[in-house]
Amino acid sequence: MIRRDALSEYARGSLWVLPTLSVLAALAAGSLLSLVSVGPRSPLAFQGTVGDARTLLIGIAGTMVTVIALLLGLTVVALQLSSTQYSPRLLRNFLRDRPNQMVLSAFVATFAYSAAGLYTVGISGGHDTASFPRLAVSGALVLLFVSLGLLVYFADHLVHSIQVDAIMHVVERSTLSVIRDGLFTGGQDAPETPAWAVPVMSPHSGYVQKVRPRQLLACAAEHGVCLRLRPRVGEHVVAGTTLAWIWHDSPRDPAPDWRVFSPILDAAVRVGFERTLEQDAALGIRQLVDVACKALSPAVNDPYTAVQAVDHLSVIFCALARRPLGNHVLRGDHGAAVIVPGRRFTDYLAVMCGLIRRYGAREPTVAHALLRLLGNCAAVAGDDPDRCAAIEEQARIILADAEREVAQPADLALVHAGVESVRQTVAENRLESRQAADGADESDDRYQSSSS
Question: What is the rounded CA–CA span in Å between residue 152 and residue 160?
């Protein structure tokens, strides 16, 4: 199953898979239409002669070669622009863009359909013939007009897709989809790895792309052990280093055989040469952080783009602030458990704020945007003490860096106002939490009094 997932992920980001399938479909459609015999008086039939049909097919095939070369050239320009201007980690988003794949597939299919038709139009058994599949030639005309419409659509789509707002919106939408459907539920109490745990080495080097904890739990329950992965999803692992630990509850039990679990881990933990967004929301955050840091570099010096990136990050972090994060624990029979380590909210927050804050400490508008993000997170995080403390700590560090780097005190007015807003929101959350706790205590007291 994990190999099928890997194949599906590879096909989703490849430019050749869908065009290849479209060529096969075009050849099959051409073969079927060639079997349909229609007279020249049919409204669906091509009205020209055999020579006209061959000239038409040659012209369509030559035109499609030119259009395909133009499309690939424009795509390469878009990829180069996104890589140098924004982030090299955005290349995968353009490769996975389904409209680009569909347009390229339509052009390639039109070329294959027309070129294959030259073998049947006006030729039969090596001799010239006056009869030819008129309906199939009409199909080539239909594909030509469809390709013309798709060319106009591709130009419009390409212009919009390389805009920074569209790029960041795609990253935001993809990351929110991972948070909603692919991110592991964390926050459970995970058993610590004991000293007698047996390490299982990784057979491959690369990034952990996807984990199937239920598949691991089935094996762990069968042998009555606990299994804990060492790397988190999205982290790099080197072949020959520890991928996971396995252990029994008691050190007096026989040590589990790591060779039994090695093939199970290889099947249930996919390690690839690059990070993917399947279960790794941190990759989407990293892409937006890269855009912000690139915009704040001296070569670009575009703080407003950095502010836009922070605004998109604010949507992602508010979604994270509502979810339980941390280690994902699955428990089975006979004391079996599987622990998949995960990032906490404070980990996400520190990495994001730290990079953008260090690059944009001299620009008060960037600091204010980060404080606005923290204020939004505080508003949705509730009374979680760890998250509130992390938000307050990041606000304090942002203020300290801004006061150190910005020379004019007047420029810091927005920063001070943002810090005060964050602190006020956190204080209101704590007050509401205390009032709710006091109300619960009073209810308990009244209930005990009435009972007595």
Answer: 13
Which H/E stretch holds residue 148? helix 134-161
Whether the CB-CB separation of 137 and 121 falls below 8 Å is answered with: yes
Answer for the pair 356, 306: CB distance below 8 angstroms, yes or no.
yes
DSSP H or E stretch at residue 245: strand 242-247
Helix (H) or strand (E) holding 313: helix 303-321
CA dihedral angle for residue 404, residue 410, residue 415, residue 418, rounded to 10 degrees: 150
Residue 256 DSSP class: P
DSSP assignment string, 329-383: EEE-GGG-EEEE----HHHHHHHHHHHHHHHSTT-HHHHHHHHHHHHHHHHHHTT
The dihedrals phi and psi of 192, each to the nearest 5 degrees, come to -75, 150
Number of C-beta neighbours around residue 431 at 10 A: 11
| pLDDT tens by residue, 316-326 | 999 999 999 99
| Residue 318, C-beta contacts closer than 8 angstroms, at least 6 positions apart | 376, 377, 380
> What is the token pair recorded at 363?
């620009």
- The token pair at 92 is 């995968």
State which amino acid sits at residue 34.
Answer: S
Q: Compute the C-alpha angle 365/371/374, nearest 5°.
A: 150
Q: Which residues pair with 229 in a beta bridge?
A: 244
More confident residue, 49 or 56: 56
Residue type for position 338: V
Q: Residue 365 pLDDT > 90, yes or no?
A: yes
Structure tokens at 275: 């990070």
Domain boundaries, the chain: 13-162, 284-325+344-439
Instruction: Output the CA–CA distances (angstroms, integers) from residue 340 to 40, 187, 190, 332, in the order listed.
Output: 68, 11, 9, 14
d(CA 409, CA 40): 84
Angle of CA points 256, 257, 258, to nearest 5°: 110
Per this entry, what is the length of the chain?
452
Q: What is the 3-state secondary structure (H, E, C) of 175-206?
A: HHHHHHHHCCCCCCCCCCCCCCCEEEECCCCE
pLDDT digits (tens, 9 = 90+) for 320-348: 999 999 999 999 887 899 999 999 999 99
pLDDT for 263-299, tens place per residue? 999 999 999 999 999 999 999 999 999 999 999 988 8
The pair phi, psi for residue 244, each rounded to 5°, is: -160, 165
How far are the Cα atoms of 29, 86, 146, 342, 387 from residue 149, in angstroms, in the given order? 21, 30, 5, 47, 51
Task: Look up residue 64 and give its two tokens.
Answer: 């499609």
Residue 82 has pLDDT above 90, yes or no: no
pTM of the entire structure? 0.86
